[in-house]
Amino acid sequence: MNTIETDQKRKELFLRSVARHAAAELEQLRTIPKSSPAFDYFYDVMDAIFIQNDPERILNYSHEKKQMIGIYCMVIPEELIYAAGAVPIRLCSGSFEASQIGEDFVPRDGCPLVKSAMGFSSQSGLKAFDMCDVVVIPTTCDAKRKLGEELSLFKEVWMVELPHIKNADFSRQIWVEQMYALKARLEKHVRTSWAKNRITAQRLSNAIKNSARAQSEIRRVMAIRKSTQSVIWGRQAMTVLNSYFYAPVTDWTEAMVRLNNDLSDKIQKGETVCHEKSPRILIAGSPGIFPNLKIPGIVEEMGGVVVNDESCAGERYLYDPVGNTENNLRDQMNSIASRYMAPCVCPSFTPNSDRLFMIKKMVAEYAVDGILYHVLKGCVIYDFEVHRVEDVLKESGQPLLRIETDYNPEDVEQLRTRVEAFIEMLKARKKNRNSTTPIS
Amino acid sequence: MKLFLLLFFLPTTLVFTSLTTYAEKTVPIYYWQLIDQDRYIYRSDMDQLNWRDIRKQRELSETANHDPKFLSLNLLDLDSAIHGLLPVDGNMLDRAIALMRDPNGEIQQVSLSAIANQPHFVKIPLDDDLTGRYLLGIHITSGGHDIDKDGDLDAIHICAKHIISHYRNGGKVGSASVIFFDDAQQMPFEIAPAIDTAKSRYGGGIQSTHRSYEMIVRYMDQPLAGTKVTVVSSESRWQKSFITDSKGRFRVMPTDDRLIAKEWQNYLYVATHHDLEHNAYYLTTLPVMVYKNRPEWSSKAMGFTYWAIIGSALSLLMVVGLIRRDSWYNSRSLTIFENHRIKKN
Amino acid sequence: MTISKLRWSILISSFFVLLFGAYLGLYFGYVLPTFSCCYVSSRAGTCFLLTLQQTIGAFTWESIVVFLERFTYFSLLVIIMGRGWCGWICPLGFFQDLLDLTRYKLGIGSIRFSKKLRNGLLWIKWVFLSVVLIVPLWVAFPFFCPCVALNLEIPYCQLCPGKYILPLLVGNPDRVAVNFKNNTNLVMSTLGLTFSAALIWGAFIKRRFWCLFCPMGLIISWYRKISFFKLRKNDLQCTSCEICYNTCPMEIEEVYKSRGREDVTFGECNLCLKCVENCPEKSALEAVYLGKTIYRSSSINFFKKRGIKSSVDTCKMVEVPLQIQIKGQKQS
């Protein structure tokens, strides 16, 4: 009796702390002056997941009818899950409170994202995690591989083997096989009472089309953010993109269309959120996931504007489309497999030179002034690539600031100082460049 | 010189029996004859030779193809005089016009020249570089014969024709491909094989035994129905008569002569037409070289059967392969950790 | 009109022009770098492989002169269009594309060859090329077995699927026959029938199956550095998404994998431009003629093709110059 009560109390305390943190962030976002009402949907999603703890509201259907499948990283195909009749929820999380609970299962030097995921999974309470009967984890980095084993103590885990040498022929073979294995397993797992649940070419084609609409809207918001007139803050954009983890794709796309229309109106009217001379920062590296808006928060507080987030929780998550030319099952499966492995520039792949080209392109297209390289404590693979990114930037001349942190809000002060210095330097460089070399 | 004359005469004899069924004895039957015919024949026994001779044979046939050809105008001997040649009536030929139609479609006059005391032959082509099918014709007129004994004098028109292929490697190709003169004034009465001139730029002058050929007779550029055509073979003495149908056409299948050693025979197509209204009598001849039947068997039935066999084997393979591949893909399994099912005690 | 519709219309019209052109009075000579087979009597021009076999099979001075003259015209034609002859004009290619379309309409998927398998099959092209170039030497100088050599007059044409399929397409079934005249002809005609049956079935289940083995394609691919029609890649725009590899009928991986080269016209490439049409990045792949871009990939067209209207161009965005070099020399 006592243990049940203490368990219950612990759960409530935990949920309250998570909700408090999320609410603080949301409050900051909602109080941004002159922000468009189109953002409300996205903030609502976060509200429903973290604060109200009622995901079914945003999912528009009940738990019994559709199964919810938890996924990690960006390489698990959502189109397959939608075509099977289930809903994918990406469970990569950014909650500090959960990561403290996860410290029991993950080594001290481990990735805080994995700690947070373990925290939410071991301590039940957040319905978004509890409602997932099954969790699909790819073997991307060390932490994810061991997360699979640890998480299996609490949930059924499906491990999907992602080959790490992308260019080899056997990699493509293994990955396609894993896709078919996932498809077969999904068909067996997701059972609806009234129909035989096979993933047919037609259902897959519909799922691909829905995702393609979302991808098209992402490209639109990217085009908006490339403009020198910034009409959206980085932390707003991050929240919008993070809400894709939880919201169903059709609703999210609709809301995105409204947001994009609003933002392009703002560009026409010239209603920018910050001065044109504000340094434009690109955040690269490990993902910052709501409610961990620490880094973009600091940057924008200090006068910069985050124009893009190169991490796997940013636009990169939804950028590449599925390019099948025929609507039969084989071609679609091949294209899905290709889309999820080939353009992915997660540093768990080796070699990963494609990421350098992507960063170069982003730096040019977004007119970036400086890069903030965000490394989570314990994320060795992103850390490995810092000096290579620096080399790439030597040619275009942008400075790079490496910040290593975890989810703990206590190092905010030190970070503030460093980021402030960095932004001041960028402002000075920008003024110099503008005054000495006349830009046409 | 004598050898040359002998070679000249040897292929140029025609022996006939009972030719009176198709033309009046008084009308001379002129025809063209290609000189040195055996230069142009394809040899099918070359694999008995060694490689040097093979190359020499090829060179000879190559030169035969692009050298100019000579044709002589001969007169058919109705009586069965073997190896004799009737002298050609020089007076009639003085007024005659010899024409050549080249692969560009143009009609030119050619002159009948004479070598030594062998008059009346022609060199074709005039332009060595122009390759394709040439038509040689001569229109000989003579008036004042009473053919049908009706009291009126009839004019006689003799249109002798020959089809020649001229091929020079890398030469100019003619812009037109012709089988008829299409000139009612100069060549009013013609006979020719019904080949598709768009598809064939060189053929028409050579036929094979045991194959069916369709021939057309034209009078004043219109196909002529109900004409009598006689086909005669020089070597095998085979002859047959045909009447053209309403479209001016008839079908002929040359037959083999096993007794001769030569690879080819000479056939002569002779068509006659008596225009009663205008009191004119027309006659046209066309000589054709006919190859002996060569052993060349190809079986379309076998070909399609073989395709059907391979096709069904491959499709069976494909179906089996696809089924196996599908079941293989669907049997792939994920790694599943189910530690949560282990009950802790 | 999309590029694939344009390509289909050019394929259809060249099929009719090449195989029925004699009726229109067209004559292009014996220099065509495409399979306009000599066994189709109503053709407008003839495949250059026939010239190769005939001139090498005679091997006299005149034939060498003829060969050199026709080779010049052939080279000019190839330089003008590169391997676009394969992708846009070849009648056998058109036939294979028709079979592929039939397969697609029937809802059957296609098979793909792995790179290992494709590399393992490369030698077949060279075998066919040697049949075109070396066996006629034996025919020209029949030192031994002249009985066999004389029946191998145009050896590749006896094996080529064009001899059996193209006259059939024009309406003439006479060529689909096993020739019993002697053993050589029996073997050659049986082999030819086998290859053509393999082409028909192969093209039904794999896109452009024969193009993997075609000797004419091999010869044309030697001109790829100097021909006018090329494929260009902009490294910065490419995200290595593999879509070009998935749509490519010749399954060329090197286009998406290559970094650091601008000219990505590979030997296998038919220049059918399916990769450019399906590339989702703006100007990552471009079809280039004489240095000028005639067709480029665009993400708007990618989404429009799949029924999604993307309005990326309505926003005021920074026009990014694409000439930023990888090696970092110039930034314009």
Name the descriptors.
heterotrimer; B: 345 residues; alpha+beta; 2 domains; ten-stranded mixed sheet; four-stranded antiparallel sheet; 20 strands; elongated; C: 332 residues; mainly alpha; three-stranded antiparallel sheet; two-stranded parallel sheet; 17 helices; 49% helix; globular; disordered C terminus
Give unreliable regions of chain B as ranges.
5-22, 80-85
Mean pLDDT of chain A: 89
Distance N to C terminus of chain B: 125 Å
Share in helix of chain B: 10-25%
Structural class computed from helices and strand pairing of chain A: alpha/beta
What is the percentage of strand-forming residues of chain A?
A: 5-15%
Please give a structural write-up:
The complex is a heterotrimer of chains A (440), B (345) and C (332). Chain A has helices at residues 2-30, 40-51, 55-59, 78-84, 96-102, 112-122, 127-130, 142-151, 169-189, 201-226, 234-242, 249-269, 294-301, 316-319, 329-341, 353-365, 380-384, 386-396, 412-436; strands spanning 68-71, 87-90, 132-138, 156-160, 280-285, 305-309, 370-376, 400-405. Chain A is of the alpha/beta class. Chain A has a domain at 214-321 and 345-436: Rossmann fold (3-Layer(aba) Sandwich). A four-stranded parallel beta sheet of chain A has the order 2-1-3-4, sandwiched between helices. Chain A has a four-stranded parallel beta sheet with strand order 6-5-7-8, sandwiched between helices. In chain A, helix 1 packs antiparallel against helix 2 and helix 4 crosses helix 10. Chain A is globular. The N and C termini of chain A lie far apart (75 Å). The model of chain A has no long low-confidence stretch (mean pLDDT 89). Chain B has 345 residues and is α+β, with helices and mostly antiparallel strands. Chain B is 17% helix and 36% strand. Chain B contains four helices and 20 strands. Chain B has helices spanning 2-9, 51-66, 90-94, 300-330; strands spanning 30-34, 69-75, 97-101, 107-110, 113-115, 118-124, 130-145, 154-166, 172-173, 189-193, 206-208, 213-219, 222-223, 228-233, 239-243, 249-252, 264-275, 280-291, 298-299, 335-337. Chain C is mainly alpha-helical and 332 residues long. Helix content of chain C is 49%, strand content 7%. Chain C has 17 helices and six strands. In chain C, a hairpin with a 2-residue loop joins strand 5 and strand 6 (292-296). The longest helix of chain C has 23 residues, at 183-205. Chain C starts with a helix and ends in a 27-residue tail after the last helix. The chains are: A alpha/beta (440), B alpha+beta (345), C mainly alpha (332). The interface between A and B is medium-sized, with 20 and 13 residues. Strand 4 of chain A pairs antiparallel with strand 20 of chain B, so a sheet runs across the interface.
